Predict the structure.
Amino acid sequence: MEQKPTKMAISLLYLMIAICMFSCNENSSEISNLRFELALLNDNQESVTSFNEDDPIIFRLLIINESDLDVMFTGFEHEEIFKVYEVSVSGENPVGKPYSNIGCEFIGGYPLGSQDSIMIKIPWIPKSGELEEVHRILCGLNYENPSLEIGSYRTYLNAKFFFNIEGEEYIINAPEKTINFSIK
């Protein structure tokens, strides 16, 4: 009878080891030195939060690899990156986003070497005849966006990003970032 508790204890130990070995590599310390910077830029590429009506607004996401490892940026999960909300006393109302699709040319991912970065920039309203200089992760400039009227607005970064290191997949929950901005 004493063998049953021993077998059960050993089985539990194996189960715990298996769970640890096969669990998702979410927020692994191996790639904890990734930094995400969200900013709104003016026409001079300066980070600002106040714009005049009809000023160009450029959304920028910078992913910086501050580690000693080379990683592959393989994607992200969230269809609302750079989505703009109008903020009023009654809450937030979605206005739109500056692109039409995510993942246009994402086959295989993008290398992100040690101490390197990837920049994704996209205008709220593209200038007439502007070439799509958007990083291939986001495609389709949204020419249908309305000019933002005088008021208060908000955009967020709240997404899971996927990276690969030597064949192993990792998921990073980017720290949520909020930018409140105004049109005057």
Remarks:
- Confidence is low (pLDDT under 50) at residues 8-30.
- Residues 3-22 form the longest helix (20 residues).
